[in-house]
Amino acid sequence: MLIANTNGDWAKMRLPIFHKTTAPVLAALLILAAPGVGTAESLAGSKGDSRYPVYFAPGSTGGCQKSYKAYVATGSHSAYASTPFNWATEFMVCARANASSQKAAETLALKDCQSAQKQYKVKTAGACGIAASK
Fold first, then answer.
1. β-strands 94-98, 129-133: how paired?
2. The model's pTM
3. Sheet order of strands, 129-133 included
4. What is the pLDDT at residue 81?
5. 60: Cβ–Cβ under 8 A, 6 or more apart, which residues?
């Protein structure tokens, strides 16, 4: 930034002062903005938003436990849908889906769970619902 002056001396002095003050001001702004950059935490290991508790009966078999563990381990947006656990029923249907957003993952997981219910013709397990999503 140069300011016109009749003798030119003031303009020559103004430029170095401007450079000396600009760098510290920009550095301070960068330091203040840096904590906001690091606040985005990974989704890996997080159980996300739980709608109802996920429980597996001791001795149960099938892929639902593996699917839930994979859901928790996933670092991206994911959802886990299942029929609620009920001691009176023998079967539990579940599905897990990853997507670009939490809402999209919920939609895919719910659709897959309902599709599995139809495929295996399981009526006693109850309705599919989103158990957890992140």
1. unpaired
2. 0.67
3. 49-50, 129-133, 78-82, 94-98
4. 96
5. 92
Alpha-carbon distance values, 121 to 31, 64, 116, 125 (Å): 59, 17, 8, 10
The whole-angstrom separation of Cα 65 and Cα 114 is 18
SS3 of the chain: the string is CCCCCCCCHHHHHHHHHHHHHHHHHHHHHHHHHHHHHCCCCCCCCCCCEECCCCCCCCCCCCCHHHHHHHHHHCCCCEEEEECCCCCCCCCCCEEEEECCCHHHHHHHHHHHHHHHHHHHCCCCCCCCEEEEEC
pLDDT, position 2 = 36
